[in-house]
Amino acid sequence: MVMPFLSLLFDKQKLELTKPVFSLSATWAIAFFNYQVSQTIVQQGKVQALLLVCVVVSVVFFFKNLFLYASKYVMSNIRNGVSAIYATKLSKLPIIARLFLERKRLPDDPFNG
């Protein structure tokens, strides 16, 4: 994902000086960011454009980790809640049904052949 922007910085690709027409797609987003990097190169120089690319990559990395942490934090509560619900339901079953369910989980059960 960073390679197209770096190719703009190191003169491997032509600068994109026309603003792309909006469409809700990934190609538009890449073309728009190429346009922004090209404008930054023209107006402020390559060092500032490289700084822009580094800041964008850092912000995206931060938000990726933030949302990954938040999803694991929320999902752990959900998993524990589901486990507790099934544990209470299992404890309310008669003893014969509980023994049958526990026996189904064993891989080397002699009764299931």
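[next item in queue]
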Amino acid sequence: MADLLHNVEEITFKADQMILKIDGEKFIFDLFAISERLAKASKIEREKYEISPSGYGIHWPLIDEDLSIPGLLRTALTSAESNKNEIASASMMASKKVNYGPKR
């Protein structure tokens, strides 16, 4: 038997989001950002999935969609980095003092 690449513990859907619990961590994905097929799928189509035995990917047979866990995690990490950078940038802008020139 192959080693388990990832432990996909839970997959749930809420509106246009997919919530995954992978390796003990929770990740939330915007369906339109990761899969147009999943975004447009019915509740039944979304909930009928198969996790590969190795933990490498997820397959939705009713819509013929496959997503790899490493690809999803890269997307999640990229999104997290982007959000951190946006927050840091906004924080820096808020903390900058505006200089209106010399006082009169």
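[queue empty]
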